[in-house]
Amino acid sequence: MRTLTPLAWPDVPAAPPRTMTAVVFDEFGPPEVLHPAPVDTPVPGAGEVLVRVAAVCVGRFLDVALRAGRHPVKPALPHVPGVEHAGTVAAVGEGVSAIEVGQHVAVWPVLGCGECEHCGVGRSEACARLRIAGVHAHGAYAEYTVVPTAAVWPIPAGSDLDPATAAGVALAGPVAMNQLRQAGLRPGDWVLVQGAASALGATTAELARHLGARVIGTSRAAWKRERLTERGLDAVLDPTDPGFVDEVRTLTGGAGIAVAVDDLGEPDIFARTTDVLAPCGALVSSGAFLGGRVPLDLARLYTLNQRVLGVRTGNAASARALWEEVGRGFRPVVDRSFPLAEAAAAHRFLEADENMGRVVLTLPTD
Ligand SMILES: NC(=O)c1ccc[n+]([C@@H]2O[C@H](COP(=O)([O-])OP(=O)(O)OC[C@H]3O[C@@H](n4cnc5c(N)ncnc54)[C@H](OP(=O)(O)O)[C@@H]3O)[C@@H](O)[C@H]2O)c1
Ligand SMILES: [Zn+2]
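A: This is the predicted complex of the input protein with zinc ion.
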């Protein structure tokens, strides 16, 4: 099993530099469009904090698809990508009292408007004005970021969480928790995670296991299935194997899957997922990068009292619940880190499907 050397949390200078290095792109295209550039260090306004970044994740959709011009949002160029990250608070803006300079934090900068009916009932994931730093605004492929306090999650006191692991859980964790909560997961349930070696899939599979579920994970690659088996999943299968459906039925004693997670959107894999879904089961999706047009047998769905539900992202309640579980020992799967200057190599690595869990970019911490 690959293990990462824990990264140190950075110290912060008394006065942040006026300019900093970021990795930007000035045109949409292949990984090579990413390059370092000097930019102004942002200054925190009221209710905001300045974070000295130690680690930032590379996401399939929010980073790779955005850079390639395949994301529905086309940010103004040049753009600094990078969404979920972790680091040390370097300065705080006016009116910030709950967060202090020097604190170690994870940042999940996916925020609802705070005013609409969905935000009003704690379902900011349904907010039509959801904004994501790194997508709609400059992000964390940079030495410093400025983020609102609502995006900041202090690392639990006494925790051994390092910045790469904290960044690895910052977004995927609240999303995975929301998936499992919305699906109504109960301890002992059989959970199927399609694409369980992916950054989000690995987090969901590990979290379900941590919460007491019996978890079946899938990958098309034999080496990833080996790694998933080493991590202690109850079973690991190839989703393209013709015997997949029978095997799941056997594993679950004929009962089927209570909670299935499919963030892929590949028609054949989705069809097999619905074939093994138990009566009253829930199939949850938070992604569909392989297309998303999938077959659904409505007659089967209603007669078996099943649900298919979308979960766009996490919300404050799922993030709070997630961080409680981090305090109880839950950890995401962080596969590999690259220095920020090698962001293009990290993008290529992800595009080649070579990752098993989260990929992070790291910055110097001294
Ligand atoms: N809503 C959110 O907040 C959120 C957050 C993160 C991710 N996501 C979504 O989750 C999905 C995965 O993203 P990620 O960042 O976790 O991905 P990732 O780490 O890049 O992993 C990609 C996954 O896709 C699978 N895959 C690739 N091509 C495939 C094919 N032709 N057929 C079947 N499987 C294939 C790979 O499976 P193998 O193991 O078989 O190679 C791997 O598990 C995406 O749809 C993304 O948009 C959503
Ligand atoms: Zn809103």
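The first helix runs from residue 60 to 68. The radius of gyration is 20 Å.
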